[in-house]
Write a structure and sequence with these properties.
Length: 337
């Protein structure tokens, strides 16, 4: 059925705070850090997803494009939507915070890591179904792969997404976009795990998609799958557009260094990169983190940056730009841990 959610099932979800960090209501007063409690949750999670899909003390630097971040207490990889639902229900029941991780391309994880459960959606939920001009991707499908697939199928609309290194779920959360295209333009509907534990297929018009915002983010929904409504196009023309966008990206962005893309949101009436350049901050460095000399909108990891280094650069840039131009830059990158 077009626009339907082929992988849906019912389950429980938790609320998330403004940073997208999942929390049960009860745990707002503090989580148990008791090792036995976590170990018994790990056993429960193993019974759901299997032994190999539950990792303890997993370094999050291996799961973020910044290549920064300390260990997660528990890192769990659901392979199916039912498993994802059960994992989240188990975390909630155990009153342990959880965080839904996509490709980690918009995250700065603290050097201390994350106390709780990382639900690694992008490592398992990667099924795709095609129905005419519609492509339905589970939330973990890499957005650029969806873009490639659309091109191969002669479907136009997802060209803008060819260089965005996030997952489909993360892209819905952020309403990811580039070069005059964004998720709002191509989504038909998104299937979500709702805070009350039900699943719902939400039409694009009801997702409140705006500049780097969505109902997914505001209401702490978990994206399970998303359906793109595309239009027939000439594969060669689609490919040419994607090649052009890739070349523009490669010439302007410091893709040779680990980063989380644009560090700051675009302030109304300004461009973050220009403000930072005009403030004389290109190349500003703290420890192993620096403002890119190629594109001042990117803070990059020069090789051995810690999260503390990146925070120091971000703080300095915010203060200095505000001092010189009266504009307080707001981070686009999300902080975890
Ligand atoms: C080199 C580079 C270039 C980039 N260029 C662009 C660009 O052109 N345009 C752009 O918009 N972004 C860009 N980004 C940023 C990033 O790729 C996007 O924001 C992307 O949408 C993040 O997806 P993710 O899967 O990596 O999310 P993550 O970083 O894993 O998570 C980000 C947030 O999304 C939430 N989330 C992830 N999956 C789900 C889910 N299934 N359900 C609910 N919430 C979820 C997380 O909880 C978290 O709060 C770039 C990043 C890099 C490193």
């Amino acid at each position: 059925m077009p626009g339907a959610c082929p992988h849906a099932s019912s389950g429980q979800a938790t609320d998330r705070d403004a940073n997208g960090v999942s929390r049960t209501k009860e745990s707002e007063t503090g989580m148990s850090d008791d090792a036995d409690h976590l170990e018994s949750l790990a056993w429960k999670l193993r019974s759901i997803v299997g032994e190999d899909n539950v990792l303890l003390h997993e370094p999050l630097s291996e799961h973020t494009t910044f290549e920064i971040g300390g260990p997660a207490d528990i890192f769990v990889i659901p392979d199916t939507i039912d498993d994802a639902r059960e994992v989240i229900a188990a975390c909630r029941e155990a009153d342990v915070p959880y965080f839904v991780l996509g490709k980690g391309s918009d995250l700065l994880v603290s050097d201390d890591g994350y106390r709780g459960v990382i639900v690694a959606i992008a490592d398992g939920l990667v099924n795709v179904t095609v129905d005419g001009n519609e492509i339905c991707c589970q939330a973990g499908v890499p957005l650029h792969e969806a873009s490639e697939m659309a091109c191969d199928l002669g479907l136009s609309g997802l060209e803008f997404a060819c260089g965005i290194p996030g997952s489909v779920g993360g892209a819905c959360f952020m309403n990811a976009g580039a070069y005059d295209g964004c998720m709002a333009d191509v989504l038909s509907s998104v299937c979500c795990l709702m805070p009350d534990g039900s699943t719902a297929n939400i039409a694009v018009g009801d997702l409140d998609l705006g500049y780097r915002k969505s109902r997914v983010r505001d209401e702490g929904l978990v994206v399970l799958s998303a359906t793109f409504a595309l239009r027939p196009g000439d594969p060669e023309e689609i490919r040419a557009t994607m090649d052009d966008l890739t070349q523009r990206r490669e010439s302007k962005q410091p893709l040779e260094y680990p980063s989380a893309g644009s560090t700051f949101k675009r302030p109304e009436g300004y461009f973050a990169g220009k403000l930072i350049t005009d403030a004389g901050l290109k190349g500003y460095q703290s420890g192993g983190a620096a403002v890119s000399t190629k594109h001042a909108g990117f803070v990059v990891n020069l090789g051995d940056a810690t999260a503390a280094d990146v925070h120091a650069v971000i703080d300095h840039v915010q203060d200095e730009v505000e001092r010189q131009f009266g504009v307080r830059l707001e981070p686009e990158v999300r902080f975890l841990g």
